[in-house]
Amino acid sequence: MERVLIADDHPLVRDGLRTVISVAFDRCEQFEASSLAEAIEIVEREGDFDLVLLDLNMPGTTGFGGLAAMRERFPSVPVVIVSAAEERGLVRGALAAGAAGFLPKSLRRGAIVDALKLILAGDIYVPPFAEALYDEDKEEADIRRRIDSLTPQQRVVLGLVVVGKLNKQIAYDLDVSMTTVKAHVSAILSKLNVFSRTQAVILANRVHFTANPVVPPHH
């Protein structure tokens, strides 16, 4: 790590992080900002940074506004949220808003160094108390990707399977043959990587999947 910006309105926090970084990363050039406006000004003036450590609550920003502003202006600079609050919802929000990691201020020095090295290697750092949540998010994103691979007709069929309709009823609703419905169901199970309709329903429910309602053709 050659250049880092520490953006926090508490001098003590900045000092602490600066000391940790000085010891762990030899010859790393460090910059400091005490407000969001100052942080943006420094990155604009100085160019590329390896990392920006951004306090969640700083003058000039509320919530993830600061993170959003940094990501929008400097999309290639990894921004790590630093926060005294240890809430799973905050971690989820920070990662969803594009943070490269979430560092609780309670972390030990060694853990901070490990986290920064992980982020510099291109990974995302999630604090231990939120790891299970992150895994869950990744799983749900994977399920959504699988459902997105379905054709529009397969999505409609999956929606009907989810509400408990049998093949016979689905064939009637869609005005197609039983063979067609069975082919759709087989394709759905294959794309979702499951073996049964029940498993398909469980996956769909995990991500609150609902298909567009079917307007039954006139028989």
TrEMBL record:
CDD domains in the record: LuxR_C_like (cd06170), REC_NarL-like (cd17535)
InterPro entries: CheY-like_superfamily (IPR011006), EvgA-like (IPR051015), NreC/VraR/RcsB-like_REC (IPR058245), Sig_transdc_resp-reg_C-effctor (IPR016032), Sig_transdc_resp-reg_receiver (IPR001789), Tscrpt_reg_LuxR_C (IPR000792), WH-like_DNA-bd_sf (IPR036388)
NAD is among the record's keywords: no
Pfam families linked: GerE, Response_reg
Keywords: DNA-binding, Phosphoprotein
Domain HTH luxR-type: residue ranges: 143-208
4-aspartylphosphate carried by residues: D55
Segments forming domain Response regulatory: 3-120
Name of the protein: Response regulator transcription factor
